[in-house]
Amino acid sequence: MAVLAVVAYHAGLPLPGGFAGVDVFFVISGYLIARLLRAEAAETGRIDLPAFWERRARRLLPALFAVLAATMAAAWVLLLPRELEETSFALRGASIFAANLALADLLDYFAGPSERQALLHLWSLGVEEQFYLAFPLLAAALMRRAWSLRVFAGLAAASFAAAQVGVATAPENAFFLPHMRAWELLVGVLLAWAGPLRPSGRVRAAAGLAGAALLALTFALAPGAGGYPGWPAALPVAGAALLIAAGDGGAHPVGRVLSLGPVAAAGLISYSLYLWHWPLLALPRAWLGGDLPGWGAALAVAAAFPLAWASWRYLERPFRRPGGVVGRRGVLALSAAGCLGFLALGYA
User: Fold this and answer.
1) CB 43 within 8 Å of CB 144
2) Which pLDDT tens digit goes with each residue over 282-311?
3) Which of 140, 164, 138, 166 is nearest to 152 (CA)?
4) What is the pLDDT of residues 209-256, one digit of tens each?
5) CA-to-CA distance for 16 and 6, rounded, in angstroms?
């Protein structure tokens, strides 16, 4: 649901709130990471931080490196010097897990020229990468503390308050900066850290329908980016939280729909689809100096799906298996080489 809404919004379809799919990403990421770390701590009594970061590198970097390489090769051919310089600045940020910070310096996410910034979409990955670096340290420190849930709740409240202030005083920065987005990830953390929920079937069905309704209303009716990530973002965040709380597939009607083959397949390739779709839209816009016609956007989105499948099949899957393609040292070496290589390319 989240990735298809974002792709539809970026392609210019009449889904004015589709950008809020990114807020759904954040809740899912917070929930997933906290649940994995909590389960590991319960099973082993500790959190293996190097192993966690190895898994994140295996999950994120192979597909990301492929997209960065392809995008920069195309940018070299298609972009004017000033546009290439801006894209290279974003590349330098992406290479050190700070694309959001670099882009906050470059542009307003919803301004016209941003539609031609080929690496704009990596701002959300930067927020998640910063969460992956910081949260496991906090979780390891608090895993045996009875009051850890209250700490996470307090941090979420403080982040939400900061977002409210940021939206009022510096909305462009508020959109990108991690401490103003952290509350969305921490909502997912709170769901996972509270332990397994066992609601009745009726409660699951009601939560699933309510969550889906909130997301549908947000995607279809949100008037624009005004107020994000403040109060307006609470709607998609609450919708995502309700769907997660409703539980797995067959337990409720919405879950059964989301478990259908084509829907699940879109979810399976969602990370690669998110990575590939935006450069395919942004680079032609930059080359043409304006918007794509409807058929051009449709072709770009159509091309994103097979690329996403190939990226998932030949990059994500092989590298995700520990020891499948390379061991831990190999992952570390390749990750460092890739990051340093793209950093150098950005400066060059």
Assistant:
1) no
2) 999 999 988 899 999 999 999 999 999 999
3) 138
4) 999 999 999 999 886 667 899 999 999 999 999 999 988 766 778 888
5) 10
Specify which of 89-93, 140-144, 262-266, 320-324 reaches the highest per-range mean pLDDT: 89-93
Q: What is the CA radius of gyration of the chain?
A: 20
Could you give the angle at which helices 2-10 and 261-268 cross, rounded to 10 degrees? 70
Angle 215-291-127 (CA atoms, 0-180°, nearest 5)?
A: 45
DSSP-derived 3-state class of residue 57:
helix
How many CB atoms within 10 Å of residue 197? 13
Query: Which residue has tokens 């069905």?
Result: 205
pTM (predicted TM-score): 0.94
Distance CA 226, CA 257 (A): 31
Range 32-37, long-range pairs (CB < 8 A, 24+ positions): 32/188, 32/192, 33/131, 33/132, 33/135, 33/136, 33/188, 33/189, 34/135, 34/139, 34/188, 34/189, 34/191, 34/192, 34/193, 35/192, 37/135, 37/136, 37/139, 37/140, 37/143
Of the listed ranges 119-133, 134-148, 247-261, the one predicted with least confidence: 247-261
